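Many introductory courses stop at the sequence. We go one step further.
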Amino acid sequence: MSQAVEIEVPEGEVVVSDAAAKRVAKILSTEPDMNALRVSVEGGGCSGFSYKFDLTADSQDDDLVLESEGARVLVDPISLMYMGGSVIDFVDDLIGQSFQIRNPNATASCGCGTSFSM
């Protein structure tokens, strides 16, 4: 089992943890038509905003592209405004396996870990 590891993130940037990068690379290796995981922020969820995770074969010119451990993660500029300073992590614990965003901008989050408010 893996647990969240503390990672320092420069202000306004987004970092992918080693655990998340390895998991993304593993997922992408089974999806030949996809080459990246897109992480975005949408309105909705029980706390006001929610994170969305999608496999994609397309990137946009203005996407933030994070590459590590054979993984490619994309964040669009609007989502980056809400996610600056965040760590995209993958946690495997007693509750289960999941991608989690540790976002210093979130003032509250719900129990599911995918919804937050600012």
